[in-house]
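We emphasize that the prediction below concerns an isolated chain of 409 residues; any contacts that depend on oligomerization or on bound cofactors are therefore not represented. The input was used exactly as deposited, without trimming of termini.
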Amino acid sequence: MAFHIVELLRARSAEREALYERHVNPQMAHVLRAIGFNRAWVRGKGAVLFDAEGREYLDTLSGWGVFNLGRNHPTVSRAISDVISLERANLVQMDAPILAGLLAEALAARAPAGLTAVHFTNSGTEATEAALKFARCATRRPRVVFCHNGYHGLTYGALSAMGSDYFRQGFGPFLADFTAVPFGDLGALERELGRNDVAAFITEPIQGAGVVMPPPGFLREAKFLCARHGTMLVVDEIQTGLGRTGRFLALEHEGVTPDMVLLAKALSGGFVPVGAVLLRHETYARVFPSMERCVVNAGTFSENDLAMAAGLATLHALDDEKLVERTVVAGERLRAGLERLRRRWTSSRTSAARAFSLPSSSASRSRASRSSAGKPSTRCVRDCLRRWSPWRSSTSTASSPRLPAARWR
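Result of the prediction step, given as a token string:
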């Protein structure tokens, strides 16, 4: 009997919540019901989700930063379909896959100078694990310094560099020789590096947990300190990379060339998980110094054709639709809209928090919820997304005079 996924979905869709609660994650099922998010999502296109009732939702969560292109981008979808239709010899293992070479070449062309070697993984946390291993192997040093509130994944090496107790609770003991410093505190960082036993300092350019910005120049000064003390600077661009901050990499805002850059999430195009470590060839040569060590950090699926095709198509779409440039314009438009709201709702007796419907007292909270209910900000965000996000139709009347409209919906 033939297998038909469409028929299976149609026949069993009513069991969605029960199956998930029974076999996958019962506590998540409880959370979804508690907050009213137990929707039956039936379709996603660009920045919009559609539920079974036909309602549309702007997806500002974006799969934890996966959908820089939006959902089901046609360029990525077509590339994956084409690879499947070719019936290529995928995952031969004893092979030099052409798609892996092409994606590595494309990433190296966009990377800071000198980071021309690429090591592929299946996810962001695996990219973190690889970088930690590479730094210890290349420097022959034991210690790793990370930042409070930092997030680099949930496998054991990454969890040892986790800056949040929430994710660490119950999973100790962690790997030895991991030390946390406050994010942005150059003095604390220099004290640790000054012991001259630190293999790597790993940090995000902007912390994804809370969108925490470091002091201006932090990344640049951190690089200087790392170079002085023989420590590798590992910049985690898993959330900030691929145009999210108006540059391909957020580190470009400070003109920093680290020793390693980590990518994942949006590199997948929202289809096939993929991670990457961008590093120098001399570092790579210390980790893989001989033919017999060529697979000491291999991954069964890390260079698979579907992931490589998704990554190549994603990079093409970013360039072809000028999405990094569009991010700058969209960000400035959103900033200006929020500033107008701040001026509108802030008075001499209210704080900036109340301007964004976050009053300090229960009485003012009640009044704010009835009066503003976030409606002006909702309109502002919706307008920004409709005008500038990749899912907008090219026939929209809100097209930019400076940037081309996205060509898909």
